[in-house]
Amino acid sequence: MNKTFNQKAWYFVIPVFVLVAFNAAVPLMTVVNYSFQETFGSNVFAWEGTRWFKEILHSERFHASLGRQAIFTFIILLIQLPLGIFIALTMPKKGWGVPVCLILMSMPLLIPWNVVGAMWNIFALPDIGFLGNSLNSIGFDYNFTQQSGDAWFTTILMDVWHWTSLVVLLSYAGLNSIQPAYYQAAEIDGASRWDIFRYIELPKMKKVLTLAILLRFMDSFMIYTEPFVLTGGGPGNATNFLSLDLVKMALGQFDLGPAAAMSLIYFLIVLLICWIFYSLMMKDEART
Amino acid sequence: MNFYILIKATDWLIMAKITLKKLSHSYLANQNNDADWALRGVDIDWKDGGAYALLGPSGCGKTTLLNIISGLLKPTEGEVLFNDKDVTTLNPVERDIAQIFQFPVIYDTMTVYDNLAFPLKNRGLSDTEIDSKVREIAEMLELTSTLNNRASGLTADGKQKISLGRGLVRSDVNVIMFDEPLTVIDPHLKWVLRSKLKELHQKINRTMIYVTHDQIEALTFADQVVVMHEGQIVQTGSPVELFEKPKHTFVGHFIGSPGMNILPCEIKNGQINFEGKILPTNTSFKKTNFNKTQVGIRPEFINFSNDGIQVKIKRVSDTGRHKVIDTECKSGSIKILASANTEIPTGSTYISFDQKYTFAYGDNWIIE
C-alpha cells in the first residue's frame, strides 16, 4: 500500500504544549526551583540542596498542620460518605419529588466557596448569628472564634453542609443505574433490606463511590477558602490546616524556599494517597 | 450432560395448579380506553407440572402477566389462585415462586456457591442441607468447577445459569418463571440452554412458564403456548394447533415463517367469496354480520393448479429447503411455500387453497 508520510499534523499539538507549559509545567518547575534554593528577592538565588525538605520534614509545625489536616479529612469522609449514601437511598426514584430533591441537593454546590465561608461565619456568630445565638440561648457555651472545639465543630458542619450533596448526587446516579430486576430477584430470593444494600446496592455503587471518595479526599485535604474566611485558621492554630499554613509561610513570612518544599511534599502526599486508594479499589476490576 | 443425580421424590412433590381469573392491569391511576390497560380480562387455567409459554411481541403485556403471577405486581382487577387458594395479595416469598429474568441477575461480590446458597440461607436452612442442595444443582448446571469463583467473573451464559440455579435450588417452589431468559446468550449456547431447560422440566416435573417473543423458543419449550396481543390472550393451544388453526389473524401472522396470508373476502350464504370465486371450506358460517371479513390460508397449504385463483408471480426466493414465492392477485399479495424441487410456473398462473386449512375471519377472529 502506498502511504504518504506527512508529519505536519504534529504542528497542531503545539498550542496545547504551550498552554500546558504555561499553566502547569512552568509554575511547577518554578516551585521546584525555589525548593532547592534560598532567595532574598531581586532574583538572587543561592543553592541549598535538600535543606528545606529536611527542615520541613522535621518541623513540628508541619507535623501539627499535617495531623490536623489528616484528622479533618478523616472526619469529613467518615460523616459525608455514610450520610450521602443514606440520603441518596431515601430520595424518591420517580415523581415530582425527584427534581425538587435534585435542585435542593445541588444548591450548596453552586455557591462560591468564599461565600460559603462568609455565610457560615455570620450564621455561627455567637451574638447575632442564628446558629451561634440559638446554641447559646439553649445553654451551650458556644463561641467558634475563641474555643477551638467550637471552631472545629463549625468547620466540619460547614463542610458537611457544603459537600455532602456531591456524595448524594453521585450515589443517587449509581443507585438509579441498577436494573429493577435486581430488586425483584432479591425479593424473590427473600433478601432483607440490609442484604439488598450489602449485596446489590453497595457493589453497584462501587465505581461512583470510588470517585466520591477520591474527590472528597482531595478537596478536603486541600481545603483553603472556607476555613480561611470562617476562622482564618484560629483560634490560635486550632484550624490551621495544611494549605492555610502553607500560604502563611509563603506570603505571610515570605519563606519561599521552605514553602516551596512544603508544597511539593504536600502535592506528593495527595498524589500518593490517591494512587494507593485507586489501585486498591480497582484491583478487583482488573482481575474480573 | 450430567443428569445421573437422583432427586429425592419427596423434594419435588409440591407443585401448583395456577388459575387466573378475569385479570386486568393498568399502570395508570385512571383508565379511559382499552389502550390504558396493559392486560385486559385474562383467564388462564394451568395444570400442575406443565410447561407453558407466553408468546407475543414486545409490549403485549406478557411480562406484566408474569410479574402478576410471581407477585411482583398487584393486579388492578382479578384474582390469582395457586391450587385454588387466593394468593393475589401475597408477596413473591409467600407465594414460593422462582423467576429468572431477561438479564442475568447475580450478586457480584459473592462466589458462585454463595449465590446459589443465598435463597436457601434466607429461608433458614441448615448448612449441611444448603451444601448438598447447592452441589446437586451445580452439578446439574455444570457449574461445579466454578463454585468457588467470584460470580462477577463468569461469562453471560454462566451468569444466567447462576440465576437459573438460584431458582432451581429451592425445593419449595410452586412455579418457575422465565422472562425471556436467553436474550443475552450467544446463539449456539441458546440451543444448549434451551434443551437443558426442557430436560430439566422433564426431570423435575415442575410447572414452568416461559415468556418470549421468539416463536421457535416458545414452540420448542412448551406443551401449551399462550399467544398474547395487546393485553389479551388471542389463543391457547399446542404448537400444532396454533399452526394449523389460528383463532385470530394475529396468531396467523405471528406464528409461521412466512406468516399466514390474510386477504379481504366476502361471506355470502355461508360461503367464502374471494376474487369472484367460492372457496370451499370444512365449515359453514352462520354469523356473518362483521365490519371486516377476511380469508386466511398458510403459504404451506397453497398449490399451483389449472384453474382457481389467478395470480401473477412476482418473485421466487430459494431458502434451501423451500422456495418462497411472492405472487399478486387483485385483492393483494399472496405468499406460497413450495418444496425446493417444485417447478415454478412463470408469469400468470392459477392457485388453489387446501380446503381443510382455509379459514374465514370476522373482525380478526375466526368464524366457526
| String of helices and strands of chain A | HEEHHHHHHHHHHHH
The fold-level CATH name of the largest domain in chain B is: Rossmann fold
Gross CATH architecture of chain A: Orthogonal Bundle
Mean pLDDT over the residues of chain A: 89
The secondary structure category of chain B is alpha+beta
Q: How many structurally independent domains of chain A?
A: 1
Return the CATH class of the largest domain in chain B: Alpha Beta
Our Rg estimate of chain B from Cα atoms comes to 24 Å
In total, the number of strands of chain B is 22
* Biggest sheet, spatial arrangement of strands of chain B: 6-7-8-3-9-10
Query: Oligomerization state of this entry?
Result: heterodimer
General description of the model:
The complex is a heterodimer of chains A (288) and B (368). Chain A is mainly alpha-helical and 288 residues long. Helix content of chain A is 73%, strand content 2%. A two-stranded antiparallel ribbon of chain A has the order 1-2. In chain A, strand 1 and strand 2 form a beta hairpin. In chain A, helix 2 crosses helix 13, helix 3 packs across helix 7 and helix 10 runs antiparallel to helix 13. Helices cover 24% and strands 32% of the residues of chain B. Chain B is built from 9 helices and 22 strands. In chain B, a hairpin with a 3-residue loop joins strand 17 and strand 18. Classes of the chains: A mainly alpha (288), B alpha+beta (368). Chains A and B meet through helix 8 and helix 9 of A and strand 6 and helix 3 of B.
